Amino acid sequence: MPELTTPDAITLQRLLRDMVDAGMKACAMEVSSHGLAQKRVKGIDFDVAVFTNFTYDHLDFHGTMERYFEAKSLLFSRRVKSEGVSILNADDPKCADLAALSAARVKTYGINSPADYRAINVVLTSTSTSFDLVYGSKTYPVVSNLVGDFNVANLLAAIAAVHESSDPQSLEEILTKTANIPQIAGRMEQIKEGQNFNVIVDFAHTPDGLEKMFQFGRSITKPGGSLIAVFGSAGKRDKPKRKVFGELADQFCSMVYLTEDDPRDEDPKNCGPDSRRHEKRTERFCF
């Protein structure tokens, strides 16, 4: 399988051809900003395009947040069919900009903002999530084994995408499938080995993702309990975000273990001219 989030154009077309030959009728694809900027999905017309959020990421490639947004917006302005639908996160400040750029009709979802698909009465625990879905004049109870408020947003996006697709399912039918969604390794993966504390593994590698993980971890930590984080930052990639990682860890965590994360032959003892991590070691940061 390809290693890129969005494969190169030739590999991608071959994979889609294999899917068609195997009798598959639909494909859900993660389209990266790199893939859009490099035209890897050129020639593909999307029936549904989903926008989750716009936060600091990939500036080592795009250079500026403005260019990063321009790349992301291509999915909605050029790649989605005019008779398709753009599903946008109403809680993100860029929602209105993308709505204005969208070549297709727009539907929104959200938790804190008015939206076509909105979650209210959200209840989060360490093992499950429940909320009421408001759509039109009706309210639907939703229960899921997914955890974290960001997964409430993800569920809303998926529900809206299926419900608004060209081959829609009823909300009642869709919601029968939310209670026990298979867990993906490394994505809010809960490790249970009989221990009397929570262990969660997640792919978070951006300031926004790390902050949401820390917020969730703190929300399920008992008063007086400790939140311990183990993470790193990829070598030779977007070094300025490392400072943000440290600030977030300092804000939320009781103890932090910093590790090497794909160093790409970068010397972990010399992370840049502004870094003096071994000289500034504190009792809460271990290396």
Note the topology.
Layout: H1 9-21, H2 33-37, E1 46-51, H3 59-62, H4 65-79, E2 80-89, H5 95-101, E3 105-110, E4 117-124, E5 129-135, E6 138-144, H6 149-164, H7 171-175, E7 189-190, E8 200-201, H8 207-219, E9 228-234, H9 240-252, E10 255-261, E11 285-286
Parallel strand pairs: 1-2, 2-3, 3-4, 9-10, 10-11
Antiparallel strand pairs: 4-5, 5-6, 7-8
Helix pairs in contact: 8-9
Note down, in words, how this protein is organized.
32% of the residues lie in helices and 22% in strands. The protein has helices at residues 9-21, 33-37, 59-62, 65-79, 95-101, 149-164, 171-175, 207-219, 240-252, and strands at residues 46-51, 80-89, 105-110, 117-124, 129-135, 138-144, 189-190, 200-201, 228-234, 255-261, 285-286. The chain has a six-stranded mixed beta sheet with strand order 1-2-3-4-5-6, with helices on both faces. Strands 9-10-11 form a three-stranded parallel beta sheet, with helices on one face. Strand 9 (228-234), helix 9 (240-252) and strand 10 (255-261) form a beta-alpha-beta unit. The longest helix has 16 residues, at 149-164. Residues 272-281 have low confidence and may be disordered.
Number of helices: 9
Mean pLDDT: 87
How far apart lie the N and C ends? 34 Å
Largest β-sheet summary = 6 strands, mixed
Which consecutive residue ranges, at least 5 long each, have pLDDT under 50?
Answer: 272-281
C-alpha-based Rg, rounded: 21 Å
Class by SSE composition: alpha/beta
Number of strands: 11
Helix share bin: 25-40%
Shape: globular
Q: Main sheet: which strands, in order across? A: 1-2-3-4-5-6
SSE succession: HHEHHEHEEEEHHEEHEHEE
Percent of sequence in beta strands: 15-25%
